[in-house]
Design goal:
The chain is built from nine helices and 13 strands. The chain is of the alpha/beta class and 352 residues long. Strands 1, 2, 3, 4, 5, 7, 10 and 11 form an eight-stranded mixed β-sheet that branches. Strands 6-13-12 form a three-stranded mixed β-sheet, with no helix packed on it. The protein has a two-stranded antiparallel sheet with strand order 8-9. Helix 3 (147-160) links the parallel strand 3 and strand 4 (163-165). Pathway: Protein modification; protein glycosylation. This is Hexosyltransferase. GO terms for molecular function: hexosyltransferase activity.
Length: 352
């Protein structure tokens, strides 16, 4: 038994010495490497922060890149849509929309006049943008009556978005002009899509055989009032006094407030039939409207041939030429004003 106890005591001592040495070694090791561990932990902490910052920067850059890409795509889409859905809108970005002269030109025509509309889109769509002005050219006619019109006109609207269909039966001198002017305040009422008032400072009614030079039109309007204005070519032809009779139906223009008056007043409603330009002048006379009048003669005139008291030779100050009843007269007029001067040279075509 004593021998056993001795061996046990020796074993216990050995175990104690073994574990004591290991604990001492571990203690020494921990003391020896604790500073390095702290450095490692601190270094790891800052490295993680660095990675987070780097990831954030990359995320911002990537997000900015995506936003830039979306903006570029959006701009491209907007440009595409503007050329597609608002084909005859001639704009200038030099001024804000609040300071621009805004003009609506309504060309009264017929639903079946597809080729005429396509031709006029070329005529007005190729005129250079006018600085400080927004000009919308729309084709105006009454309700569609044929199945082919419902398809073809709908396709035009989808492609060009430049058509106004009035709620009326097609006519020339039985109220179509009244329906046109009286409908505009409702059609272009102030909304998110049309935030400015008035939506147009001036509204023009024009024939589809009239060629209007937009730049000259805008320049003639700049010094004029934007309220209670009546503008055009005075009839009868020899007259130069805009307060005596009325303006020719080739193309006359009024300020927006007159369109609002036509919509609300009982005077036009009771007098719809007759030569539309003459009747229009009588509305203004009876309603004591249009205290501001502008005679654009002889910047507006009928085509020089055949010569009459209403014709004038083509000249650079022209605003509008009327009675272009055939292609020969159109080509002669367009050649005079050199409308193809901006055609760029290309290997794709050769035009002598």
């Amino acid at each position: 038994m004593p021998s056993f106890n001795l061996h046990a005591h020796s074993l216990n001592a050995s175990l104690f010495n073994f574990f004591s040495s290991r604990i001492f070694a571990l203690h020494v090791t921990m003391k020896t490497y604790r500073p390095n561990g702290r450095r490692f932990i601190i270094s790891s902490f800052f490295f993680i922060i660095f990675l987070c910052i780097l990831a954030s920067i990359n995320e911002i850059r990537f997000d900015s890149f995506l936003k830039f890409g979306r903006c570029a795509f959006s701009d491209q889409t907007t440009m595409t849509n503007s050329s597609t859905t608002n084909f005859l809108s001639v704009n200038s970005s030099s001024l804000s929309a609040n300071n621009e002269i805004r003009i609506l030109i309504g060309i009264l025509t017929l639903p079946d006049q597809y080729q005429k509309r396509h031709f006029l889109r070329l005529i007005y769509g190729t005129q250079s943008p006018t600085m400080g002005a927004k000009i919308d050219v729309k084709f105006v006619f009454c309700n569609l009556t044929k199945e082919d019109q419902k398809v073809l006109v709908a396709l035009e609207i989808m492609r060009y978005d430049d058509i106004i269909i009035l709620n009326c039966q097609e006519n020339m001198n039985k109220g179509k002009t009244y329906t046109y002017f009286s409908s505009l305040p409702e059609i272009f009422s102030t909304s998110d899509d049309q935030p400015y008032y008035p939506p147009y400072h001036y509204i023009m009614k024009a024939d589809d055989d009239t060629y209007i030079r937009l730049e000259n039109l805008v320049q003639s309007l700049r010094p004029l009032p934007r309220e209670d204005l009546y503008y055009g070519y005075v009839i009868p032809c020899p007259s130069m006094d805009p307060f005596v009779h009325y303006m020719s139906g080739m193309g006359y223009l009024v300020s927006w407030d007159i369109a609002e008056w036509i919509k609300e007043s009982a005077i036009p409603k009771t007098h719809l039939e007759g030569p539309e330009d003459k009747v229009f002048g009588e509305w203004l006379r009876d309603g004591h409207r249009a205290r501001h009048r502008y005679n654009a003669k002889w910047s507006m005139y009928n085509f020089p041939e055949p010569p009459t008291r209403c014709t004038h030779e083509l000249w650079p100050e022209t605003i509008a030429v009327h009675l272009l009843k055939n292609q020969e007269k159109w080509i002669q007029t367009l050649n005079y004003f050199n409308v193809t001067r901006d055609l760029k040279p290309s290997k794709l075509y050769h035009i002598p």
